[in-house]
Amino acid sequence: MHGLRIISMPDDYHRQVRENADSELVDLAEFIPSITLDIRYATAANLLGRPLYQQPKAYLRRPAAAALRAVQAELNAVGVGLKIFDAYRPYSVSVAFYDHVRDETFAAPPWRGSRHNRGCSVDVTLVSLSTGQELSMPTDFDDMTPAAHADFSGVPTLALLNRAVLRAVMSRHCFEQYPGEWWHFDHKCWENHDLMDLEFQAFG
Asked: Quick one: pLDDT at residue 101?
């Protein structure tokens, strides 16, 4: 696989967790009960038009999950919360995306892999706690136009404000925004973890 080290056996993953608790992939719905999930890759409503996950789940490495829980707490204090579109993503799914898109801006190439594959990236937006509705953002999730870029300016003022709030709060908790996608954030711990190609059942 392009010379990459990729964890593809559950036993190897569980051995890493025994050696380092921070390697554990945490179920976000259990770890942050107030969080909203919209896992489109478990449905046909995605770029490939078919389900790519067997379960509508979202997982992050333990340090990233703890940071995201702190983000949620800060947002909840002002009546806002997070909606998660995706988190850990198996390497093979990233390969399928790249084969379809063929654009490194919106899909990690197989020879590099994605920080999603390391369980350290999350795709998020903001929702109102009172209504459950998404707040205005520059584009929908997985939009592949320049408007999706993190610094694109030609969008309504409210969307720019909401995008700035999301970036500011995520940044305070050690998440860095990926420049090509306003919704994509990488936790600083990504360099500590291997790429993986495991189904969600391996983490149960």
From this structure: 86
